[in-house]
Amino acid sequence: MTDDDTTRILAELAQIRRADPPTHGGRVLSYVYDHGRPELDRIAAEAAAMFLPVNGLDPTTFSSVARLERDLVRFTRSVLHGDEDVVGSVTSGGTESCLLAVKSAREGWLAQQGRRAGDPGGPRPEVVMPTTAHPAFRKAAHYLGLVPVEVPVDPATGMVDADALLSAVTAATALVVVSAPNYPFGTIDPIARVADGAARLGVAVHVDACIGGWLLPWWPEGAAGEPWDFAVDGVTSISTDLHKYGYAPKGASVVLYRGRQRHRGQYFATTGWPGYPVVNPTMLGSRSATAMAAAWAVTQALGTQGYADLVAQTAAATGAVRRAIDGLSGLSVVGDPAAALLAVAADPDRAPAHQVDPFAWVDAVRRRGFLLQAQPAFAQGDGSVLPRTAHLTFTPVTESVTRELVAALRDGADEVRGRAAPGPQPDLVERVITGGLPEEMAPVLSTLEAMDGDAAPAALTSLLASVIDPDVGHDTDGAADA
Ligand SMILES: *Cc1c(COP(=O)(O)O)cnc(C)c1O
Fold first, then answer.
1. Which of the residues bear the PTM N6-(pyridoxal phosphate)lysine (predicted)?
2. Is there a domain that residue 60 lies in?
């Protein structure tokens, strides 16, 4: 391979990358967590490059990995008020952290029943959660053979009632899940009350702080209002993502447990094959240490003061945009979001002619250069319906674009106010699969929203599978593969 080859290949990669929306600069209000500090990107890149050849599968061989992991666990537990009884692992992301917390709780529950770890026979354990809990817990139930038990939240506030959640707990409950905050509405569940009640019943409680774990500890005036982490006795495990507000590149999260026995429950170990003795702390076998090294470097570079400073910036930007949204007629923020994420619904107190449809608004704001995330309406088990919303996640760089963002939100709302929401189109998913995503996403989302709970997953699966199918997929700009 010549230098020319290197240049050409990397140029092509850069060209492919140009199809993406900008990951820096505050234009994408989900998925990316921009600190706005180029020096952090540099240190993360160099740290990751240093660990590219390492295999995190075996920390007894690559002892550097064990060192990084111990440091990250120690730092994270200190932030979350854990004492020496709190231990855990670095995982590849929030979903893996949640899956492992559920596996650990399943093994704990099976042991209580006098059954063996991983035992598939007998009654299935349950995981109790508000409807707002992250889908990672439904996925965990699906993968690990538990029954998900979903408790409705108040459609006006996005809040679950602690007593309602606790009354869903039975002898089959292996775990109760609460969030700090939940993703859809950004509200914090009544964690102290739930943990207290669950502890009395002898049931484990997981706090999903995947998105809030690196925000809430420094949020001005204590966003949570009351303790929500290991300071609460009944909390038995917490997940928190380094690759969100920890500002590490994607591929790093931490799951922590109160008690070493609980942590052991997430492991898989076997000597039942002719090869080397296997012990996997997480879901993966061979695992990259690049994200862990980058996360280590970023947390070292920031320290608690660095996080406090970035949170202060994020909080200021959130306050400014929130006030602007509160001033937009026809839209209203759902409930009382605790930190840097919120959902905006059509104002229920307005007549349709004065309402702004969130899907239409997302498209209108996108035409003005900012990407919001559309969340379809959701019918809960009790028949109540959570509204369709637009979701916004703010980061430190939001501060640098507040004026442009507020103008886009306002002008977008003015453009579509009173306009009827686009309805579902029966053959739309098929057309998207063959023709690619349209400019206007509202009809696609309305179509998905109108599908029943069985049809939608199949449609989504076909759609996403087609995107990466070498014989079907095409770039959004219509360019053919080389
Ligand atoms: C992001 C998120 C997760 C899942 O994390 P991934 O890193 O996307 O796998 C779980 N819970 C909450 C509240 C989240 O915001």
1. 244
2. yes
Q: Can you give the pTM of this predicted structure? A: 0.96
Each residue's pLDDT tens digit, 251-301? 999 999 999 999 999 999 999 999 999 999 999 999 999 999 999 999 999
Tell me phi and psi for residue 43, to 5 degrees.
-65, -35
Torsion angles phi and psi, residue 181, rounded to 5: -95, 175
Whether residue 322 lies inside any domain: the answer is no
Query: Ligand 1 pocket: which residues have CB below 6 Å?
Result: 93-95, 98, 134, 136, 179, 182-183, 208, 210-211, 241, 253
183 in a structural domain: yes
Spacing, Cα 369 to ligand 1 middle (Å) = 25
CA 475, 477, 481 angle in degrees (round to 5)?
Answer: 40
The answer to whether residue 208 sits within a structural domain is: yes
CATH number for position 135: 3.40.640.10
Which domain covers residue 62, as residue numbers?
A: 46-298
Name the domain count of the chain: 1
DSSP string, 203-231: -EEEEE-TTTTTTGGGSTT-TTSS--STT
The answer to whether the peptide bond before residue 358 is cis (omega within 30 degrees of 0) is: no
**In ligand 1, which atom is closest to the CA atom of 253?**
7
295 C-alpha to ligand 1 centroid (Å) = 17
Q: Are strands 341-346 and 331-333 parallel, antiparallel or unpaired?
A: antiparallel
Residue with CA closest to ligand 1 atom 7 = 94
In the reported structure, the alpha carbon of residue 427 is separated from the centroid of ligand 1 by a whole-number distance in angstroms of 31
Return the residue whose CA atom lies nearest to atom 5 of ligand 1: 94
Q: If you average pLDDT over residues 372-390, what whole number do you get?
A: 96
Q: Point out the least confidently predicted range of 100-109, 143-152, 461-470.
A: 461-470
